[in-house]
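Reply to dn_fold:

You asked what the input looked like. This is it:
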Amino acid sequence: MTTARPFLMFQQGNAQAALELYFDTFPDSRMVHVEHWEPGEPGPAGTIKVATFTLCGREYLCSDSPMTHDFDFTPSISIYVDMDSLAELERVFGILSEGGEVLMPLDDYGFSQRFGWVNDRFGVSWQLNLPAG
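and this is what came back:
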């Protein structure tokens, strides 16, 4: 069966730290499978060669790139999360914006109860939404 999954490529060995933040922040999120770079392989030993993980029950892939690229994450592609409550939205927004960049502060933009857009400290872009009643 053909499948499609989002893939996050981290640089500077940040994948593990990012995953730990996400697992601590979102429900139903965990590591499914991980392979690490071994000594003598192209990537720094111990960093993530490839990992399969879930966020809010949805499966993703990620890796630590063994080489530095001139590009990184962009807000053009983001992870859109519908939250269950205002308190949860505010909690997650606070965690992900710490050390990151707020693109749109939490507010009522007319299409939901509350919405905010943030790039986390690793550069991953998140659209966080509290749907209309």
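Strands lie at 7-10, 30-36, 48-55, 58-64, 79-82, 101-107, 114-119, 125-130.
Hope that clears it up.
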